[in-house]
Amino acid sequence: MLKRHYRLAMGLSILLLLASMLISLTLGSVNISLTDVFNVLVGHATQSDLTETIIFQIRLPRLLCAVLVGAGLAISGAILQNASRNPLADPYLFGLMAGAGLGATLVSVVLPPHLISMALGAFVGALFAVLLVFVVCAGQHWRKVEITLLAGVAVSFMLSAISSFVLYFAEPFAANRIMFWLMGSLSRTDWLSVLLLAPIVLLVLLLALALRRQLDALLLSDESARTLGVNTLRLRLVLLLATALLTACIVSQCGGIAFVGLMVPHIVRHFFGVTSVRLLFGSAIIGALFMIWVDNVARTVLPQQEIPLGVITSLVGSIFFLLIMRRQRL
Q: Most exposed among 6, 63, 277, 326, judged by the fewest C-beta atoms under 10 Å?
């Protein structure tokens, strides 16, 4: 019965994802019908070159980036939550967003123009934040997940304070550009972003699937996992490094998008199950589906203006968790 329920949920989710991807290609400042989109994709287009350019050079790479970003953040959250047995574990709690923001800020404000790209600066800053967490938690502290989370929060506050200090003295236009990017946006993504994110998302997913039995063992307890031959410390280090690398790449391309890694795994556990295989595949699909519609709302609700993605995800995520807290109290 459970297996049948899982297959039904997976099938419906995949259909919704494909339908959402097609619909997303029709939305934007230029109206393109679903028929025209389908004809362009299959190579039987009779439309103008402008229509094909809009679809292949603007909307399609942005759509694929939304799929990869949503799937990547949801997978990272699912891995960390199962590995730590903490439903509040999230890649951003390890200071990745603050580190990426500091890197992007320094590149845009302090360094000479065009010396280093903002994406590269954000990536280096995110990895620097992870390194700081590693240094703080060196030794036996890795055995306590709560200490790792607290170290990430402390690093996040410290790096955010440095970023705010630099932005306070920055030129207003540069500061505004950084602030918008920090709130999350897919407007800067292109085919290069797709080529960067796709292999990393796939590699982290394959790594987690390869370690699925060890992850499932961690759901019981560390003692039970060790009796089954699982090196819990090494396993958590490998998973943290993998999710940190994936999140750093995502942040470097689209800025900060919060709550996806926290919210999506909770939804997936309810409809798909808690074991690693079901959770990972479900998180990838639901995360991609969620991010597609967040991006659609962000670029279509206001005329000639785009809402930062992080604003929408934070609003939806905060309401989601308030409802969960209310339900648990009842």
A: 326
